[in-house]
Amino acid sequence: MRVLFIFIFCSINFVCSAQNKTASIEPYRIDITASKTTNLIFPFAIQSVDRGTEDILVAKASGAENILHIKASKDSFPETNLTVITKDGILYSFIVRYNNSPERLNIVFGKQDSAQVQLSGGNHQMDQMEIVSKRILLKRKMFAHFSDQHSEIILQLQGLYISSDVLFFQVSIHNRSNVSYETESIRFFIRDKQKAMRTASQETELIPLYELGIPCTVLAKHRKSIVLAVGKFSVPDNKYLELHLLEKNGDRDLGLKLNNAQIMQAKQM
């Protein structure tokens, strides 16, 4: 009986000790506003971003994989959170609050503000996405009717492919004007079909996992092809996906709209 008591007592101590060893990371607190952009600068490229609510807007900086732009979608919102994982397998946790006049707009983070996580695939996944993207650039176009035009600039979806649960968008930019076209970025949004007036709270932004060929400059009378990789997703019936091309220092922006049925036409690579 005494032996059984000792065994139970040791087991309880072991469980308690294991529980006491549980570690946690203290979230970093940041203030943002709707009138200014806050820049979060990480030591490595951004792998994924998760927002607590759509009250905050996020976008990777054009040409800088380690900088995340963050902004409030409206004046004032309840406290929420933000999680960022970088490509070296580090997780950063944030509590986000609204403030009309944030004290800091450019914030640099190090590993002391983070926690180590295990990425699925790691650098191997990045290598695979680069290989698949380069193969897609050589393929003939699948579609002829997904296009948008503005001021002699044509944005066209040429192909849509899937490999290892990653969607690859093959896009071309045709500059038929006499003025070169410098791209800022291509952004992906899931938006509400029913609302004529767009509001930030009605859209979700998808951050590409990999981009091949952008940003770029499309010379006059020339064409460029690019490939963008996005983690697999589906679009509800009352929403649509928009690929939004932005011109750097210009207003020749274009957009392509796709519904879920069209996205499901992606070909297996």
Question: Keywords, please?
Answer:
single chain; 269 residues; mainly beta; Immunoglobulin-like; five-stranded mixed beta sheet; 3 helices; disordered N terminus
How would you characterize the overall build of this protein?
With 269 residues, this protein is mainly beta. It folds into 2 domains: 89 residues, Immunoglobulin-like, CATH 2.60.40; 147 residues, Immunoglobulin-like (Sandwich). Helix content is 14%, strand content 45%. It is built from 3 helices and 20 strands. Strands 10, 11, 12, 15, 17 and 20 form a 6-stranded mixed sheet that branches. Strands 1, 3, 6, 7 and 9 form a 5-stranded mixed sheet that branches. A hairpin with a 6-residue loop joins strand 4 and strand 5. The chain is globular and about 50 Å long.
SSE order, one letter for each helix or strand = HEEEEEEEEEHEEEEEEEEEEHE
- The amount of helix comes to 10-25%
Oligomerization state = single chain
What is the rounded Rg? 23 Å
- On the 0 to 100 scale, the average pLDDT is 82
Residues in β-strands, percent: 35-45%
CATH A-level architecture of the largest domain: Sandwich
How many angstroms does the end-to-end distance come to?
65 Å
Which stretches are poorly predicted, pLDDT < 50 over at least 5 residues? Answer: 1-20
Tell me how many strands there are. Answer: 20
Which fold name is given in CATH as the topology of the largest domain?
A: Immunoglobulin-like
Q: Provide the number of structural domains.
A: 2
Q: In CATH, what is the class of the largest domain?
A: Mainly Beta
Number of helices: 3
Q: What does the largest sheet look like? A: 6 strands, mixed
Described by the principal axes of the CA atoms, the overall outline is globular
| Structural class by SSE content | mainly beta
